[in-house]
Design a protein that fits this description.
Elements: E1 2-6, E2 9-16, E3 19-26, H1 33-45, E4 56-60, E5 66-70, E6 73-77, E7 83-87, H2 91-101, H3 108-121
Antiparallel strand pairs: 1-2, 2-3, 4-5, 5-6, 6-7
Helix pairs in contact: 2-3
């Protein structure tokens, strides 16, 4: 990932399969708490956002890697953008990945809800290359 200047705005990019992709931009103007509240509320609650009804997990890994989970798909991307993907098929694989690879200390009931979502969503396409 990197930040670059695009027309006076700080833009976060991620190096993905087909090169650098814009993820979000930081506009150098004063912001108010209410602006953050409404945009966070919208992305967290609107039924068509990828955050509703999908399991999305990400964290930095060793040696400048990044590990992500989008429902049943786990991707490990190296610093050069090369990605290795695997698909989870069993309940125990879901639990192991959430607990050991992502370090999530969640009650069994929460893990079970995540497993149900991941099993229902399967390996479908991600809504944005960043999740791919």
């Amino acid at each position: 990932m990197r930040f670059i200047d695009v027309g006076g705005e700080l833009t976060l990019q991620a190096r993905l399969k087909h090169g650098w992709q814009h993820i979000y931009r930081v506009i150098p103007y004063p912001r108010y708490d209410g602006e953050y509240e409404i945009t966070n509320w919208y992305t967290a609650t609107h039924p068509e956002t990828p955050y509703q009804g999908n399991i999305i997990v990400a964290k930095p890994g060793p040696n400048r890697t990044r590990i992500t989970m989008y429902n049943a798909r786990v991707t490990v991307r190296d610093a050069d953008g090369h990605a290795e993907k695997r698909w989870l098929a069993t309940d125990s694989q879901f639990r192991d990945v959430l607990r050991s690879e992502f370090g999530l200390n969640m009650p069994n009931e929460d893990i079970d809800r995540c497993v149900a979502v991941m099993k229902a969503k399967g390996t479908g396409d991600a809504p944005h290359p960043f999740f791919a």
